[in-house]
Write a structure and sequence with these properties.
- It is elongated and about 60 Å long.
- It has one domain (2-157).
- The protein is mainly alpha-helical.
- Helix content is 84%, strand content 0%.
- Helix 1 (2-32) runs antiparallel to helix 5 and helix 3 packs antiparallel against helix 4 (79-111).
- The mean pLDDT is 95.
- The chain contains 5 helices and no strands.
């Protein structure tokens, strides 16, 4: 029972991350680039008091722990269940790597680089961020689907 709850919690966390990423793409990124430099200054002012990126910094590591626990707890159930959870874990690890290697440097340009004299760099970083964030979203959704497949396979085996 506890192992299923942990797997479901991981699916919930990962789904939440995917949905927030989609929201970022559809709403936030569009607003950030709507009237540069004013729109960038507005988001910087907003982020001074509450940075929504903290959601990812809190929930993503929790999800990594939960998916790792799922791998451990379901290890003996079947190779296919274990494999699906491992694939999810690897996909989430790819997202974490992409975040640190690709997104954080662009976030610094967009949200901390002086605006004056750097408008073209900010526009480029924002465009690159938006384009690559679709890939990050697809990877996250694929990870969720593999976790769901693992649970589905578990229930089919134990039906």
């Amino acid at each position: 029972m506890i192992k299923k709850n942990i797997a479901f919690l991981s699916i919930i966390c990962a789904s939440g991350l995917v949905m927030v990423t989609i929201y970022n793409l559809i709403v936030d990124a569009k607003s950030w680039g709507s009237d540069i430099p004013a729109s960038i200054q507005t988001v910087r002012d907003y982020y001074k008091y509450a940075d929504p990126r903290n959601f990812f910094a809190i929930v993503a590591p929790i999800n990594m722990v939960l998916i790792l626990l799922s791998i451990i707890l379901f290890w003996k159930d079947s190779v296919s269940v274990r494999t699906y959870f491992i694939i999810s874990f690897l996909l989430y690890a790819v997202i974490a790597s992409l975040t640190f290697v690709y997104f954080v440097p662009r976030d610094r340009i967009i949200f901390t680089m002086p605006i004056e004299g750097h408008i073209e760099q900010i526009k480029t970083a924002l465009s690159e961020w938006k384009n690559m964030n679709w890939l990050r979203t697809i990877i996250g959704l694929t990870g969720v689907m593999f976790s769901v497949k693992a649970i589905d396979t578990f229930y089919k085996i134990h039906a």
